[in-house]
Specification:
186 residues, mainly alpha, 2 domains, 6% strand, two-stranded antiparallel sheet, 3 helices
Length: 186
């Protein structure tokens, strides 16, 4: 068994808020029609990839869509498999009906947006929080928006850049010179 996720560069803004009566935390995330289409096509692309790789059973993310079960003797292309095409059409026709559709979140991005001015974001291009001295952020939250792809390499580059800058600042404040060339004795 293998699970996949389809990342979307969503346009929808959600919110997290506390219930004023009982204090429970609630998440509100209305999915924009364009985002619904992109997420649906991502799920379909994943189903096609699984078919090509020989998966025998393929689930969508909607509990209202029965899983696709490949016939034991089927060696056809997914474009020629009428049952698989019906499965894909069923996914498309339902197109993420809330609230029963499974929707999750991974690689949250853009919540502390990097920007050239304080009114446009939370941190400056060097990862410094605009309104708080000596606080740096160097994770996916500084992305200007969701990337729509796995952010691993990008966040590694951003973290390396921001941490190098931070090392320089700390060395200058300590009066030690180039922080990147310093070695510590543990």
């Amino acid at each position: 068994m293998c699970a996949h996720i389809a990342l979307a560069r969503d346009r929808t803004l959600g919110s997290v808020y506390e219930d004023p009566i009982d204090g429970r935390v609630h998440v509100r995330y209305p999915v924009d029609p364009v985002d619904k289409k992109h997420i649906t096509e991502g799920v379909i692309a994943l189903a096609k990839m699984n078919y090509v790789e020989g998966a025998r059973v393929i689930f969508g993310t909607d509990p209202g869509v029965a899983p696709f079960i490949r016939k034991a003797d089927s060696n056809t292309s997914y474009t020629d498999d009428a049952d698989f095409q019906a499965f894909l059409n069923n996914i498309r026709s339902r197109c993420l009906p809330a609230p029963d559709h499974l929707l999750g979140s991974a690689h949250q991005m853009g919540t502390n947006r990097m920007a050239r001015a304080p009114h446009l974001g939370v941190v400056d291009p060097k990862g410094r929080v605009w309104e708080t001295k000596n606080v740096y952020i160097c994770d996916t939250s500084v992305f200007p928006s969701a990337s729509g792809v796995n952010p691993m390499i990008t966040v590694m580059g951003i973290s390396d850049y921001i941490s190098s800058e931070l090392a320089e600042v700390m060395s200058a404040e300590a009066g030690v010179g180039n922080g990147a060339q310093q070695t510590s004795k543990l």
